[in-house]
Amino acid sequence: MALDDRKSEFTFVGTRPDRPDGLDKVTGRAKFGADMSAPGMLHGAILRSPHAHARIVKIDTSKAEAHKDVKAVVTRADFADVPFKPGLEGEFWNVLENVMAGEKALYDGHAVAAVAASSALAARDALKLIEVEYEVLPHVTDVDKAMAPDAPVIREGAADYSVPEGMHPNVVRYHESGHGDVEAGFAEADLIIEDSFVTEATHQGYIEPHACLGMLGNDGKGELWCTTQGHWIAQKTCAALLGIETSQLRVTASEIGGGFGGKTTVFIEPVALALSRKANRPVKIVMTRSEVFRATGPTASASMDVKIGMKKDGTISAAQGVFRLQGGAFPGAPGDMTAMCAFAPYNLTNVKQIGYDVMSNRPKQAAYRAPGAPMGAFAVESVIDELCKKLGLDPVDVRLKNAAHEGTKASYGPRYERIGLVETLEAAKAHPHYTAPLKPGQGRGISCGFWFNHGGETSVSLALSEDGSAQLMVGTPDIGGSRASMALMAAEVLGIPYENIRVTIADTATLGYNDVSHGSRVTYASGLATIKAAKHAVEKLCERAAAKWDIPVEAVKWENGCAVPSGPNAGDFDPMPLADITADMGRTGGPISGHFEATPEGAGVSFGTHIVDAEVDPETGKTSITRYTVIQDAGKAIHPTYVEGQFQGGAAQGIGWALNEEYIYGEDGRLQNSIFLDYRIPVASDLPMIDTVIVEVPNPGHPFGVRGVGETGIVPPLAAIANAVSNAAGVRMKQLPMSPPRILAALKDNNG
What we know:
This is Oxidoreductase. Keywords: Molybdenum, Oxidoreductase. The chain is 29% helix and 23% strand. The chain has a seven-stranded mixed beta sheet with strand order 3-5-1-12-9-10-11, sandwiched between helices.
């Protein structure tokens, strides 16, 4: 896509206006997933398997159906008849199997049946009346054990073409990439370190549980209100699973109380619609917190082996890694992403990475910001830190020496365009934090991180009002301040105040298809579309001005919210403000609007560098994060306050992942910590003040230079914190989270 008229000087972009959704949220007017209701509404509840792996021999729903308050009961049989789209396969089939179990329950919490009743309490009571006969099967929840020859098979035939012959059926995807000759590179090294690392699965921890309200008639027409990061994908998936035409289901996205990648798919929405179709009434389902943990997508867990060779001057001569990730009982663990991201920050002559996608008896994994990347960074950056320590080298200098830059061949293949990794490292070295003195018992860690960023299908529409204000409709749910960013970019093009633009998240019947709000794509892709739609409107404004002045449209240009003659030969006319043109638009040709639809490419990769100070109590193993600095390339910060918030949010979530958060499964394969009381996310007292530095190296693929910032911020924290803790404790920590018992055990082993 040609990008003309790139800007580097701005009027509105880069400022910090009030957020447009602030008043609604602080006053309670904003409507989230559970806030919608409808006349005659029923309440849905879902029966879930108490076993990690079991064959469903029989389901008897007759007693529940006889309950006076129950209006509908559904099982997998209610999803089996799909006449409009027969033979579901691929990811649609995986989602259906996850939404409602078929022949087997594949994990603790897997849905097996659902009811709709006149009250939420009645629905819960009715679940107890459903009788399910299970044949309990062997289970496996650990990624390495799931690959072992004697591991129980989760599902035969799930592997794709990429898996080498002879591998266990639980290995369903295989990735290998790199370049050069790693063995020759290791032969050149003065020091080689090879080590293994483990991370446990963590949940995104969004405060708002999944919730929806579905209405589906026997005529195949329906409405769905839900908390989601992508209502078009919800529309497409639900339609496929229920056998209706996609266009007949209108989906509206509610406000979202956190998603972080975990609300990019469906879990309860098809169930609510199936119950509604059977009951001929609207059905609302709201997950409990335990259901969110047991049955929605956490991250993958990982087991990794990394080997890096380094010369005495700090040059990395070779690097290789093997990354094994389990993503639950379905294909989809981002082993390929982990492999591709792990060495991406570095300019390597010899590199090889292998990634495995492995199935286990856990819930279907979902994205958590940069899926897979934090695990790989933890392993690689830990080994680099250890190499620096043993060779007596400065960790920032070593990373600068090996840093990728424009023209570098990435570890996963392509050559980078303009990137800002070097600038983030230089900012880190110059930051007061890096040279600040440490107290006894404290350690400092540093890490780099990488994420791809994404474009995706995007559609935007902008309409001007007679008073000169504007309405902008986008299709990407606002999960990080995108309404403010879109308004700022539209204001920049139109030349009218930010406050005069209202941004609305349109439903699926209003705009063309929009990809999910994920992949750090929204400010880039929807922003690019917003700029193009605003320029489309400006073209029409110039046409109206040209007609009024009776001069060619080529003789009119747009400046500071006004049509002006493009030069002295165009005539002597006073600037014509936007509001003057729109006031007469009904008499000069009708409404003025701008549209843009595309799948933009050129999102521009993103890099960040984090500095962390940690203090470890050797008596208790407790870790305190005492100082944290995030430095990241944003390309161009449209709304710097939101950008800083994204940086800080990634760091805060990374602190939880590194120190406390993990899925704990018992010997029976059941999740042991399915509430926030037992699954500990950071609270305010666990966090330091998080400093931020915005680096701006413009992305050549965006008119304003934007790079997505939502995901890169969670990539460096695990490694940076692990390096800080390891330096504070005097022992290398290789397993996350670094909980007090693990730190005490490591100290005990280290001290003999």
